[in-house]
Amino acid sequence: MRISLDQVIPHPLMESAISSSEIWGQSLTFEKPNFIRIEAQSGKGKSTLLHILYGLRFDYQGTYEIDGINTSIFSKEQWRALWSDRLSLLFQDLRLFVNLSARENLELVPSTFNEGPTMVDMCKELAIDHLLDCPVATLSFGQRQRFALVRCLLKPFHWLLLDEPFSHLDETNAAHAAHLIKSCAQLRNAGVLYTSLSTSSPLHQDHTLSL
Amino acid sequence: MNAKVRSILRLCLNPTSAGKELVLAALGCLLGSFLLLFAVQFYADSQSLVSDKEQGSSFFTLNKKVQGGLLLNLSTNNKSFSQDEIEQIQEIEGVEDLGSFSRNHFPLTVHVWPAGKIGLGSAARADLFFEAIPNRFLDQIPDGWDWEEDDPIVPIIVPKFYLDLWNFGLAPSRPEYPALSLEAASSMPVEIWIGEDQSQKMIGRFVAFSKRINSVLVPQKFLEWANRQFAGEQNQKYFFLWEDNEISSPPMSFRDLKNLQKSSSDALVVSPLEEPAKRISFQSLSGNPAMGNETARLIVKVEDSHAQTFSEKIGVAGFETNREIPQNGWIHQLATLLTWGSAGLGSLLSILSIGTFTSSFKLMIAQSSGTARDLTYLGFSEKQISWVFFQKFSKLFGLIWITSLLLCFGIKEIFKRQVIEYGLEINNGLSWGTLIFALLYAAIFIGINNQVIRSSVSRFCKITKN
Q: Are the beta carbons of B463 and A79 separated by less than 8 Å?
């Protein structure tokens, strides 16, 4: 699955933010199984980029193609199929269902990738397995962030899009999360595109781009 | 999607609000559904009471006036309708159908056992008559009305006012006779004794109490059979016997004359009571099969719009009329009023409840729109999300639908008991029409709400493109 951006510029973004960007207004192609880190300060459009790639925003100019097909002609059924089987996104605000337990949140995916580690294995690796039956509403943001990451990794995907995946994790947990992300992506031969505020990251990267 | 995921999906999308709106919608829907089903059921029941062909018709019974003294009236011949008279009546404008009453030609006594034959119950005895008319003139054909030669029970329809006379006239004055409900009267033993010496006994049962036909009716087939069996001779006809060119005795019955003929070597000469001068040989009468088959009463079906003129013409012709209680009229009017009233109110409530239901579910979906959108981002389809709301609706509507049917059935049973009081009978259970309508109604209601749910989910989960 190849992702191409050609002269993509989001409408709300300031001109000053675009001029220095290595992504906005450029022609880029992301090939899997590359690990790409997007580095930027706040307000530069990190979430906007991931939302555009995931098909949640269309308020931009330029062309966004998947496998050479312009995504502007995709129907909602085509997007839904991509969300179900080929793209997985970790939202910055996580979007867990707070009226459910953590386990129910993890089980609530339309399709799962069954060849990798199980849900419990992943939770153990991230040291949250003892919280599985707790209501999400009672968990800290860091714990929720790890559960949200596990939910992303349970799905099948060709590209994993992560919006500041380590923002609320300590170094140890961030390292465990990075290891899990890498192993899951490698199992699927998938690409990973993640954003980060800082210049360093516990997760391996093949390319780093600045927004 | 496996059952576990479905179950979590339901939990995830389970809104706690919109409850009040939904309860109101459910109550409105229940009332509307019930009224609509009731209207259809009531229409079906009233149609079974009043067949289409009888709507807008009146029924008259006709007979000739009885005048004069005892001697004159011992003969019945001049009280019968001739073929010409029948044809004349048939030609009156508005006459739709005409049938004749046939009657028994044998003595008949009936014993009824109002308190049963066991214990201290005593019988009420009465000389009675039976009549029969073609089934098409009956206001209802009760169960068990058909009679075959081997049937041990003779079905009898008596006027409802006979029962009223019993309950409010005879029974209060005779402690040994209890008042009778319709059910009790229907199960009361009835003995039919036939012949002057009451040599033949049959068992009868009151199968219906008619408010329309003022006569004691038995099936035509039974009456024809009984007349063949027990009235081969015209015993009730009276004649003057002539001897030496003058009337030699008071009027004698056909049977007495026949016995006399057997013991006499001379040929008897007689004359009919109404024509004393017309002398004929008794032997010529004996072989006349038409004797005794006169039509003394007619039942005529007349279009309502011509009923008044028919009545006037019949009066001018010198016949007596008795317009039967126009039962069909009030049943038809009541049925029309109730059917359209229920259908109108039911339709209004149903439309309102569809509106309330759809509003409630739109509200419910709107409240869950954020969750629904996030679920689609996970890869759930709109169909899978709609299904959760549709299931919730279906369970509620299913409950309402079944309750409406049960209510309709219950009211129908109460109605059935009520109409029995009027001597009418309607079929058991809900009609096919009601059940088919109920299915169609459910299909329409479910179809509309399914569409509304799907379009609401689709709108809230819409991908916004510039």
A: yes
Contact predicate B12/B371, CB 8 Å:
yes
pLDDT digits (tens, 9 = 90+) for B284-304: 665 544 445 567 788 888 887
Select from A72, A76, A100 the Cβ nearest to the Cβ of B12.
A100
Q: Which domain holds residue B273?
A: 238-286
- Among B26, B28, B38, B21, which Cα is nearest to B397's? B26
At residue A179, the pLDDT reads 95
Residues of A in contact with B12 (CB under 8 A): 97, 99-100, 104, 108
Q: Could you tell me if B250 and B353 lie in one domain?
A: no
Q: Do B5 and A99 touch (CB under 8 A)?
A: no
Rounded Cα gap, residues B262 and B381, in angstroms: 104
Q: Indicate whether B112 pLDDT > 70.
A: yes
Cα distance between residue A203 and residue A182, in whole Å:
7
Sheet holding B124-127, edge to edge: B124-127, B108-112, B190-194, B200-210, B153-159
Residue B140 covered by a domain: no
Distance (Å, whole) CA A86 – CA A88: 7
What is the residue type of A142? Answer: G
The structural domain count of chain B equals 2
B47 occurs within a structural domain = yes
Confidence of residue A150 (pLDDT cuts 50, 70, 90): very high
Q: Distance, in angstroms, between A111 CA and closest chain B CA?
A: 8
Q: Tokens 């009471």, residue? A: B49
* Higher per-residue confidence, B93 vs B461: B93
- Which H helix or E strand runs over A183? helix A171-188
Comparing CA positions, the residue from B130, B62, B65 lying closest to residue B99 is B62
Q: Given a cut of 50, is residue B317 above it in pLDDT? A: yes
Query: What's the number of domains chain A is made of?
Result: 1
Q: Which residues span the domain enclosing A10?
A: 2-210
| Confidence (pTM) | 0.59
CATH number at residue A98: 3.40.50.300
Q: How far apart are CA B191 and CA B204, in angstroms?
A: 6
Q: Evaluate whether residue B178 is within a structural domain.
A: no
Beta strand B200-210 pairing with B153-159: parallel
CA B217, distance to chain mean position in Å, is 15
| DSSP type of residue B232 | S
Q: Which residues contact A118 (CB under 8 A, 6 or more apart)?
A: none
* Per-residue pLDDT, B28: 83
Q: Nearest residue of B to residue A76 by CA position?
A: B463
List phi, psi (to 5°) of A28.
Answer: -135, 150
Please name the member of A11, A80, A95 whose beta carbon is closest to the beta carbon of B381: A80
Helix (H, G, I), strand (E, B) or coil at B243: strand
**In chain B, which among 322-381 make CB contacts under 8 A with chain A?**
371, 374-381
- CA dist., res. A61 & res. B134, Å (int): 90
Is the Cβ pair A100, B384 closer than 8 Å? Answer: no
Which residue spans within chain A are E strands per DSSP? 2-10, 27-31, 35-39, 60-66, 69-70, 87-90, 159-162, 191-196, 207-210
pLDDT at residue B251 tops 80: yes
- Give the contacts of B209 (CB within 8 A, at least 6 positions apart): B157, B158, B159, B160, B162, B163, B182, B185, B423
DSSP 8-state assignment for residue A155: S
Do B366 and B269 lie in one domain? The reply is no
- Interface-testing mutation among A104, A113, A119, A132, with chain B (most B C-beta atoms within 10 A): A104
State how far the Cα of B59 lies from the Cα of B50, in Å rounded to an integer: 13
Q: Is residue B28 part of a domain?
A: yes
